[in-house]
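Priority: low. Protein: Nicotinate phosphoribosyltransferase. Input follows.
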Amino acid sequence: MATYDNLTLHTDKYQINMMYAHWIHGTTDNKAVFEVFFRKLPFGNGYAVFAGLQRIVEYVRSLSFNEEVIEYLREQEEDYAPAFLEKLQSFRFTGNLCSVEEGTIVFPNEPLIRVEASVFEAQLLETAILNFMNFQTLIATKASRIRQVAPKDILMEFGTRRAQEADAAIWGARAAYIAGFDSTSNMRAGMLFGIPTKGTHAHAWVQDHDSEEEAFFRYAAALPNQVTLLVDTYDTLKSGVPHAIKVAKAMEAQGKRMSGIRLDSGDLAYLSKTARAMLDEAGLPYVKIVASNDLDENIIFNLKAQDCQIDSWGVGTQLITAADQPALGGVYKLVAREKDGEYVPVIKISGNPEKVTTPGLKEVYRLMNRRNGMAEADYIVLSGDTEALEGRKLKLFDKLHPYLYKYVEDYEAVPLLKPIFIGGEQVYELPELDQIRAYHAKQLKMFWPEYLRKLNPAAYLVDLSPQAWQLKMDLIHANKM
Ligand SMILES: Nc1ncnc2c1ncn2[C@@H]1O[C@H](COP(=O)(O)OP(=O)(O)OP(=O)(O)O)[C@@H](O)[C@H]1O
Ligand SMILES: O=P(O)(O)OC[C@H]1O[C@H](OP(=O)(O)OP(=O)(O)O)[C@H](O)[C@@H]1O
Ligand SMILES: O=C(O)c1cccnc1
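Result:
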């Protein structure tokens, strides 16, 4: 079997076909600029949480058309000339790549990643970059919604068994941690990324004993420092909770404290309230209640509205598969190409106005109100336009109804796109995961709650500068049949 972890061919065949066609026509070295953005927020949310950059950086660094890959291409496609395959052998990314940092709050229709490279290199990267960014951003956004409804509780990611295969499990666990989950059950994700791991036990442990009581006592004897007992194998209130109380009391006699019980079926509001009362009655107020069973942000929100007594949530399937919206539709679009040694902006026209691209190399700034430190709007300008950076008064206007406008001043323009690779050299030091998580938590504080609420959030303003807008209009008119 072929080597498994070389991601160089983790791309759509049409990218290699286009690379080949450029090679045939001698245009491989022409520069091209692509931008990554998405058009629509997932889950009806008001923002997305950008994630995927670490994987993208590792992928770009590791690109290598080694012998095995070349051999495969040779066998697969007789059109690919031997000299083309030879050129691929020395392929490496030598361009510039800028990106928003992981954990950043982002919005539709703003550039999140910009690749500026020979068209030969830039074309190859599209598929993998979108694959990594779309999935990880989607899961981080879902996790952020879950965190929002349980701001003070412990959130445990339990999704691996239901994830869309192994990569999704570990990178999804990482994305969830960035957006505020406290732990993962996936030990490999823990080892690879330094995410704290947590786990209870399964029904099998109870079923594998002559009695539930015996199972509980033996588990507590084996792992006295992390005893969370699953109490719903036979009858939660008549058997599970009373047996757990017995174990907790026995532990107390030895000077130890049981951590918790886990509810995994039935009416979680009713069961948690009753179990809480039973535990308190037994003098065990410190024993926490963990819940799991196909939870998502809506069920957790509802359970809280029912005054559930749940301290900690295990969330699997709904999070790791983003069950209510299985994909983020991020795209990678050409915005400029080199012609006669200069960049020429390009556009994609569509009958669907949302699909018309915004031409030209762009920067995106977050306009931070200096008086209150809150984000006012995101402002997209053509690269080289420094008006916002100089703090000049800006006109933000509604593109469909230009007579609706407002001026902003007394702001700081914070560039969102950071240089990651310049001339193929990595210039960005990847932050530690905990730094990313802390950065994300700080980001959330910069937005008014109206933009963050889970249901019907207010739309945050992402505006094009007048020059960027004019360029778009000019190209639409120039290209319209
Ligand atoms: N009080 C509640 N309010 C709203 N939703 C709840 C409540 N209690 C449980 N749920 C959710 O209802 C859904 C349906 O649970 P379901 O009836 O399938 O579980 P169960 O039959 O009790 O357990 P299982 O089939 O997993 O053994 C689950 O997603 C669960 O999290
Ligand atoms: O429900 P999720 O959010 O996906 O969380 C993970 C689930 O995985 C385990 O169940 P298991 O796989 O044993 O099957 P179950 O569906 O019968 O509980 C655990 O008991 C949770 O219920
Ligand atoms: O630790 C747990 O309780 C757990 C882990 C994964 C899936 N379900 C439960």
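The chain has a mean pLDDT of 96. The first helix runs from residue 13 to 24.
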